[in-house]
Amino acid sequence: MTTDLVNIRLSRGANEVADKLVATGYFDYATTAAKFALAYALKNHFDEIDPETYSIPDSEGNNYNIGSIDSDGQLATLLRSLYPGTTTPYLYARALMVFGLTKLGERIESEGLQSISSFL
Question: Which of 15, 16, 32, 91 could bridge across to 27 with cysteines, CB 3.0–4.6 Å?
Fold first, then answer.
């Protein structure tokens, strides 16, 4: 049985996208931008990612304690309901955050930062 995370470390590229999103003024913190990216991934790319097997490119981004990501446990509850049988919702959360931030970064690169305003 795999042990779940107690900290979530973003990839370097995902961290850079989170910082860009914070710079827009729509997000106060990178953690908020990362949770937005998780929701973006679930809504727009659900069938493209298997959080259980998704490979994080690196672990060179910021590190966040689970308490700052999911202080009330609702994120874990959501991920357990979307992915029945998972015992590692925070591994899934990390994968979805990195994937979502990566997809948002690709969109920003190709269409500009304004292209994500419809998701806010």
Answer: 32
